[in-house]
Amino acid sequence: MTTEKEKMLNGEAYFATDKTLSEDRIHAQTLCHRFNQLEPKQIKAKKQNLKDLLGKTGKMFYIEPPFRCDYGYNIEIGENFYANYNLTILDCAPVRIGDNVMIAPNVSLFTAGHPIHHELRNSGLEYANPITIGNNVWIGGNTVINPGVTIGDNTVIGSGSVVTKDIPANVVAVGNPCRILRAITDDEKLLI
After folding, report:
1. Is 16 helix (H, G, I), strand (E, B) or coil?
2. In the beta sheet, which residues pair with residue 62?
3. Residue 190 to residues 3, 101, 102, 173, 186: CA-CA distances in angstroms?
4. Among 31, 43, 57, 91, which is most exposed with the fewest C-beta within 10 angstroms?
């Protein structure tokens, strides 16, 4: 018989009230709480705490507390990753973040979803779709990235965006819903 955790990890509908999943969330909450309570100068301890929590990290990364996630083990961050205050990741499905990614304050990544029909939703059934963020991406403050979204390499997502669909590489995209504003060109190497 397939467990609820296996269903979640396989991208199938599942019940998050399952004992194993509840224990996994408590473990992640404990590590997040510990991370968020460390003194600012305890950089090595913060880094080790995140390595214990997250599924994969690069060597160089930094997350400003507070940080919150559901499970942690579904999150992979690449090399030279930086996230500012109040990053929230609901990682019921894999969240893969590439190298050289910068995330501004108050950004939320949501892989979790709930059924539209109230009877199914009230039963506690959930589902999740992965989020993938490419290399060299900058995500502006107060952005929400919804389930199943992929953001291409070298892209900038403007502040306050709600990303509901895939965004290709090498563009600036903004808004609610997030739309491509323009391509990024080599001329911008000269601009600050």
Report:
1. coil
2. 82
3. 54, 21, 20, 20, 8
4. 43
Beta-bridge partners for 51: none
| Structure tokens belonging to residue 26 | 């408590």
The edge-to-edge listing of strands for the beta sheet with 156-157 is 61-63, 81-83, 102-103, 138-139, 156-157, 171-174, 179-183
CATH number of the domain enclosing 75: 2.160.10.10
Gap between the Cα atoms of 4 and 13, Å rounded:
8
114 is catalytic: yes
Extract the tokens encoding 27: 């473990």
Range of 169's domain?
Answer: 4-190
Residue 111 near residue 93, CB atoms below 8 Å: yes
How many domains is the chain built from?
1
pLDDT digits (tens, 9 = 90+) for 52-94: 999 999 999 999 999 999 999 999 999 999 999 999 999 999 9
Given a cut of 90, is residue 187 above it in pLDDT?
no
Q: Three-class SS of residue 97?
A: strand
**Active-site residue (options: 27, 33, 114, 117):** 114
> What is the distance of C-alpha 41 from the center of its chain?
25
Distance (Å, whole) CA 141 – CA 158: 8
pTM of the model: 0.95
